[in-house]
Amino acid sequence: MAGATGQQHYQPLFPHLLFVALLLVGASLHLYFFFYSDEYTIVSSKKKPSDKLAERGSSTSLNATVGKPQTEKCDLFTGEWIPNASNPAYDTSCPLIGMAQNCLVNGRRDTDYLHWKWKPRDCDLPPLDAKRFLETMRDKTWALIGDSLIRNQGDSLLCILSKEDLAVDFYHDEAWKTSFFRLPSYNITVLQIWSPFLVASQYSDAPPDPGTTAVDQISIDTLDPSWAALYSSLDYVVVSVGHWFTRPMTMLVKERELVTGCYNCEGYNLTVFKVEEVYRRVLRLFLNFVGASLHKPTVIYRSWTSKHFESGDYNSGGVCNRIVPYKPGEYSGVEMDWKMRGAEMEELDSGFEGRPLDNLKFLDLYPVALLRADGHGSKYWSSERKRKNVQDCLHWCLPGPIDTWNDLLMQLLMSE
Ligand SMILES: *[C@@H]1O[C@H](CO)[C@@H](O)[C@H](O)[C@H]1NC(C)=O
Ligand SMILES: *[C@@H]1O[C@H](CO)[C@@H](O)[C@H](O)[C@H]1NC(C)=O
Ligand SMILES: *[C@@H]1O[C@H](CO)[C@@H](O)[C@H](O)[C@H]1NC(C)=O
Ligand SMILES: *[C@@H]1O[C@H](CO)[C@@H](O)[C@H](O)[C@H]1NC(C)=O
Predict the structure, then answer these.
(1) Cα(262) to centroid of ligand 4, in Å?
(2) pLDDT tens digits, one per residue of 143-196
(3) Residue limits of the Trichome birefringence-like N-terminal domain (predicted)?
(4) DSSP string over 269-318
(5) Residue 104 DSSP class
(6) Residue ranges around ligand 1 (CB below 6 Å)
(7) What's the pTM value of the predicted model, to 2 decimals?
(8) Which mutation among 60, 65, 349 tests ligand 1's pocket best, with the greatest number of atoms within 8 A of CB?
(9) How many secondary structure helices (H) and strands (E) does the chain include?
(10) What is the dihedral of CA 59, 369, 377, 324, to 10 degrees?
């Protein structure tokens, strides 16, 4: 959440090629494009993803039972956290852990939070098998698109996989918000793409402090080209946004380039939208794009996850000092959680033109993450950037419970 890339709503990586790419988006399965970095070329697949995994994947696709059992046998997302002494899949020496997530190195002393396993009620969740994942994904291109929480999960995934094949970055922007990796032995590409609203936007760099006068803008009818231009080159797409919509700054909402409403906007003579309605509109735009696109990658929408600030919010001294998870039913989130989750459930459930989207899966972490108030950076989120009394109760320590999000992702893709 902290910081932003500045006033531009996106930074074209290779402007002339991006322009070409924009022309091609959605054009045809038979079109594909290249882009270059110093040392690497991505060439998209001309074929529909037809590997076994993708085929099996579509048989468990999201439909009217969204959030309910993803397999006949087992609902992965209903269960509890149980103690388990086994160690995380990697340790603090993983070079891909951002400073702000390296809690143990930043001084966290309690370590029980590393020793819980998610136990779905009706089955067991095996840890992500890095070797199997890499073999299955050979030659594939993944993208993780969204805000710093999907970045957090992507870093976890890369750390897990790096035990088998060290991920090497071949492009990153200055702040490492967008960064591209290769797993060289398996010819796998993992793109981490910064797009905190999924749609075209302009937003302030300033931290969202109380009394901010910053004014942000989003265009709820225009997908952010920083990812949309690459869509046709992707085999697997993991998307998650949400928290940036709930920042306290004034938000102007644009359609057809005109401001048609706003929120957090007292004193503006404009139609006032609800945050969750705007989120819903963005999800709808995204789902319609996925449904209408001729290119059919496997798309995973990763759910909203709760913040766990107590005694205040992130900007008013809130803390998350718990060292054990909640038990099922002990904590149920706050009003904003239900609103944003409600928007997700309803939009994802309604699919595209009244039909389920065969290539879309819902990684429904909400109930899993809700219980892990103990897994955040809290006061160990950074030795440098830490401001007085500011804890991080949104992002997750690495290693930490967020590694389980990837175990679930693997299971969701692999399960029959
Ligand atoms: C959703 O999936 C379930 C279980 O696979 C199936 O019984 C049901 O008919 C599906 N619903 C729709 C609308 O496709
Ligand atoms: C702990 O977790 C590991 C990995 O999931 C599993 O193999 C093992 O059986 C678990 N141990 C216990 C005591 O449940
Ligand atoms: C790597 O994967 C791409 C598809 O993403 C493929 O076009 C290329 O031939 C592969 N390279 C090698 C060396 O196998
Ligand atoms: C608010 O906008 C409406 C419609 O554009 C206009 O009629 C009205 O005068 C405006 N009110 C103020 C206080 O500017």
Answers:
(1) 15
(2) 999 999 999 999 999 999 999 999 999 999 998 899 999 999 999 999 999 999
(3) 72-124
(4) -SPBPPHHHHHHHHHHHHHHHHHH-S---EEEEEPP-----BSS-TTTT-
(5) T
(6) 63-65, 356
(7) 0.81
(8) 65
(9) 9, 17
(10) -130
